[in-house]
Amino acid sequence: MVNVGKGRLFRRADGKYLIYLPLDMATDSMFPFKTESSVRVKVSFKIGNKKLTIEPFEEPLEE
């Protein structure tokens, strides 16, 4: 099981930021995101904490 790896955060020429994850981590059977192309995620952090949280983005239920 691969639950720790070295990725990269970088800024593209157009100003967008990308996060790359190691292939062996993203293809591990226990990886929490299953996708063949892309998946919407919620990205957050707490001020003063040097950790980034990435979790599935859940659309609000319509009533």
- Please summarize the sheet with the most strands: 2 strands, antiparallel
Domain module count: 1
* Termini gap: 41 Å
Count of beta strands: 4
The helix/strand series, from N terminus to C terminus, equals EEHEE
**How does the overall form come out from the CA principal axes?**
globular
Low-confidence blocks of residues: none
The Cα radius of gyration reads: 14 Å
The overall average pLDDT, rounded, is: 91
- Helix fraction bin: under 10%
- Strand share of the residues? 25-35%
Counting H and I runs of at least 4 residues, what is the number of helices? Answer: 1
| Structural class category | mainly beta
Sheet with most strands: strand arrangement: 1-2
